[in-house]
Every structure is written in structure tokens, then in C-alpha cells.
Amino acid sequence: MTNLKDKKILVTGGSRGIGAAIVKHLAQCGAKVAFTYTSRPDAAESVIQSLANPEQHLCLAMDVTKAESVEQGYQKVLEFFGGALDGLVNNAGITKDQLFLRMKEQDFDDVLNVNLKGTFLLCKQATKTMMKQKMGSIVNITSVIGQTGNPGQANYAASKAAVEAMSKSLALEFGSRQIRINCVAPGFIETEMTHILTAEQKEKILDKVPLGRMAYANEVASAVAFLLSSDASYITGHTLNVNGGLFLG
Ligand code: NDP
Question: Which atom of ligand 1 lies at the shortest distance from residue 115's CA?
């Protein structure tokens, strides 16, 4: 198990799916975790109660698309962590799929706002703290779709490709302060986001996955833990693919 003992880590969208798996895994690795939710306080509470020492962790409401909500939430996290932050995981993400000619402007804006602007707003807060500390690690969750594109996901693909490009720029800007910025790009993972796919869509995808199955969320979580840890101390500006060999053609 990766060693993250007493590391203070903030995870966005930790109430369910991949985010919840990341929160649980980081806590098992010894980290103190703060995580956010928007619409499901009950789900967030059940994640925190599932952790070994719930009082060492924090869940809080934060809408990553709103600068004010991010600033206020981030201050609470800093207070809880005594002013320090070792790691940030930008996991909160949404899809609003539609073929391009039918895609509404609102669907484009919503996806870009959560996936890209949310990552931008959180990175702004976290890098201020990490600059003072002269250390820190940020992991942004992107997607295989940001590398390959996918019919019906122009908004989502654009948002994830943009996060990868932004992450490389941040890696260049913050390297001299020993702040590392990397991405984890999952393939298809069993979560609510993929439950909406039809059996036929799933079968088509699995045909292209050399490992022949969808991933479990904890397989993404262990890649995130690695990049946050000192085991990855010389890795920055990198995207780690957790996709079973899937590259949609
Ligand atoms: P889920 O839909 O299961 O969970 C999404 C999480 O994001 C929830 O915790 C949700 O909070 C939170 N969230 C949504 N909108 C906001 C917002 N405006 N502000 C703050 N939090 C928000 O998603 P997954 O676990 O499937 O995906 C997690 C990440 O992994 C995403 O970035 C996704 O793009 C990426 N990914 C997923 C893949 C998959 O196969 N599932 C494949 C590749 C990448 P709440 O519960 O309160 O609504």
C-alpha cells in the first residue's frame, strides 16, 4: 500500500463513484482527507462513516463551478488541516452527452464549467498554499475520451483534453516550487456515470478493451495515490492511463 501517512489531501466529488473510492483508498494509505459533494450529503456522510477514523476526515459542500463556493470551502479545508495542504485531487466531473448537432449550448457550458473551470478554480486555491510550502502534488482526473474523442461527447472530450493541456502548463509553471501536477485518465469504470450506457454500448466498448473488462474504481484510486506520494517524486506533467489498454479507434 502506498504510504501517505498524515498527508492532508482534498478530493472534489468524493461522495460517490471514483471519488468515493479515492477518498477511501487515500484514508487507508494513512492520509487525512477532506472531500466535497454538491447534491448528496447523505452519500458523503456514509463515505465518511465508512472510514476507520471519521473524525480525522472532513466532508463539505462545494460547487466547483462557483468561485465563491470554492473559496469558502477551501478556507474550511485549510482550517481543518491547520493551514497546510499536501495534495489535491480534482475528481468532480459530469457528462451531458448528445450528438453534436443536437447538443445545446447549455450542455456544453455545464460540462466545461464543472470539468475544466472547476479544476482551474481549485488549482488556483491549492497552488497558493503549496507555493508557500514549496511542495505539493495535484492529480486531475481526465479520461481516455479526452485523448481519443467519442461521438456524442464533444463537450466532455474537449473538457478533459483541456484539463490535460492545462495540467502540463501548470507543471511547467510550478515545477521550480516542487509542486507536481499530473493527470490520471481512466477508461471505462463501473460507476453511475457508466450505468447510463446501454448493454449494446458497453459490449462495443469492451470489444476494444484488451483486458476484457471495465475497471474497478479502486484501480483508479491506487494510481491517484501513487502520483500523490513521494514514490512519484520525479513525475510531473504526466498522464497515467488506467484504461485496460483501451484506445477507441
Ligand atoms: P459520478 O457521477 O459517479 O460522481 C461525480 C462526482 O462529482 C459526485 O461526487 C458529484 O457530487 C460531483 N460533482 C458533480 N458536479 C459537481 C459540482 N458542480 N461541484 C462539485 N462536485 C460535483 O462520476 P464518476 O465517479 O464516474 O467520475 C469521477 C471522475 O472520473 C469524473 O471527472 C469523470 O469525468 C472521470 N471519469 C469517469 C469514468 C467512468 O467510467 N466513470 C471514465 C473516465 C473518467 P454529488 O454526489 O454531490 O452530486
Answer: 32
